[in-house]
Amino acid sequence: MRSGARWYFIHFGAARVKQAVLAHVERLLPGSLPETVVRHSRCSVLVVKRNPARILSPIIENCIAMFRKILHTNNDYALTIVRVVLGVVFFAHGAQKALGWFGGAGFGGTMQLFTARLGIPALFAFLAIMAEFLGGLGLIIGLLSRIAALGIAVNMIVAVFKVHAANGLFMNWSGHQRGEGFEFHLLAIAMALLVMIRGGGALSLDRVLDAVPRARYR
């Protein structure tokens, strides 16, 4: 099968398979209209005009359905508490890294730390900073809460295995350890998993967007 801007050309060798070919075209391109059959020697050429609206409709509707699954959540205020607290904490940490607020190193200093000292590729270092900064903001307002929580959970998992696992479970309360343990990270991962599973809960933009009436694409 060869495709152009508006036409599909299907070659078949015997008239008796015409119906089978037409059925196959309809499965591949719903709503396409057979225009003509041109016979040449022992081959036939079926020229099929595309109907873009009907072809794209199921694709767009599937994308919308998937997006709504990401947004969907219950009117649960317990989820709201978890989401907002997690968002505030990580927005503050992200602002330290991205903007230098709250005594942080800022974007340049954090990128230097991640790439030079920890050996993290620049792209992943940038994504880690944005996961905390934008992800924290997204959790506070409840926009794309599941995606924001996923980014934070990945950050915490990487931090545990790359830095904190060697220091044990506990934070360095006494000052005698080589560094901080990973108990904080476990709590953050658990909170992020809850948001990923249940969504942002009450008072979230996700819930507002999910309530928008569904319109069938035509």
Summarize the structure.
The chain has 218 residues and is α+β, with helices and mostly antiparallel strands. It contains 8 helices and 4 strands.
Write the layout of secondary structure elements.
Layout: E1 2-3, E2 7-12, H1 18-28, E3 33-40, E4 43-49, H2 52-71, H3 77-99, H4 106-117, H5 122-141, H6 145-164, H7 183-198, H8 205-210
Antiparallel strand pairs: 1-2, 2-4, 3-4
Helix pairs in contact: 3-4, 3-5, 3-7, 4-5, 5-6, 6-7
User: How much helical structure, as a percent, in the residues?
Assistant: 55-70%
Q: What is the overall silhouette?
A: globular
Helix-strand string: EEHEEHHHHHHH
**Proportion of residues in β-strands:** 5-15%
Give the structural class: alpha+beta
Low-confidence stretches: 1-14, 33-43
Q: How far apart are the termini?
A: 26 Å
Radius of gyration: 27 Å
Main pleated sheet: 4 strands, antiparallel
Mean pLDDT: 82
As laid out across the biggest beta sheet, the strand order is 1-2-4-3
